[in-house]
Amino acid sequence: MGKTINVKNLYLAEVTEHGTELVFGKPELVPGLRKATRKPTISKGVQYGDGRLEDIESSKTSYEIAMDHNDIPQKWRAWFEGLSITNGVESGSSGDKAKPFAMGWEIEKAKGVRELIWFIYCKANPIEDTDEQREDNIKISNDTVTITAFEHESIGRYYTKINSKNEEVTEKMLQDFFTQVQTTDTIESRE
């Protein structure tokens, strides 16, 4: 029997901005990732000449990430949406502002290949909850969130990704990848 492809090991890290500099909190493992879909947002330009199409230019402007999770912890829900929690009570208002964060996860691919990715500067839309009571079939609720990953000017990239199939990727790089948000071509450990 073949190994199935799996998405797992979601890591989230708070991002605070000091002028144009980003400061990353320590990554936190948030179990329960069910699905992560990443799709580049494209800006297109077309050029016509002599009555025909001569060229098409396209450029990435961001990434849209759709994430399904079993149950995003209250701490992270509040961070995503800029909500207040006082004495264990969460409150939301029209003044809530989404806070930036970094997110990374692992994809187990066929034949033991591992792909690890960090999206470095993200903001989330408010989380969608589906709560439903069913009498005949078991229905499990989950959280769905749409996230936009931006290319921050101080970093100059949307994401950092490694793939264990690449012969330049070492076991140490794989071990160190989620110890901190990786923002360069050199994978380093937080310790």
3D architecture notes:
- Strand 6 and strand 7 (about 90) form a beta hairpin.
- With about 190 residues, the chain is mostly beta strands.
- The strands form 2 sheets. Strands 1, 2, 3, 4, 5, 8, 9, 10, 11 and 12 form a 10-stranded antiparallel beta sheet that branches. A two-stranded antiparallel ribbon has the order 6-7.
- It has helices at about 75-80, 170-175; strands spanning about 5-20, 20-25, 30, 35-50, 50-70, 85, 90, 100-110, 115-125, 130, 140-150, 160-165.
- It is about 5% helix and about 50% strand.
- It contains 2 helices and 12 strands.
- The termini are far apart.
- The mean pLDDT is about 90.
- It comes from Zhenhengia yiwuensis.
Features:
single chain; two-stranded antiparallel sheet; 7% helix; Phage major tail protein, phi13 family; Maj_tail_phi13
Rg from alpha-carbon coordinates: 19 Å
How many strands? 12
What is the percent of helical residues?
under 10%
Major β-sheet annotation: 10 strands, antiparallel
Quickly give the structural class: mainly beta
- Give the CA-based shape: globular
First-to-last CA distance: 39 Å
Poorly predicted runs are none
How much β-strand is present in the residues? over 45%
List the helices and strands and how they pair.
Blueprint: E1 6-18, E2 21-24, E3 28-29, E4 33-49, E5 52-69, H1 74-81, E6 84-86, E7 89-91, E8 101-108, E9 114-124, E10 128-130, E11 142-149, E12 159-163, H2 171-176
Antiparallel strand pairs: 1-2, 1-3, 1-8, 4-5, 5-11, 6-7, 8-9, 9-11, 9-12, 10-11
InterPro entries: Maj_tail_phi13
Organism: Zhenhengia yiwuensis
Protein name: Phage major tail protein, phi13 family
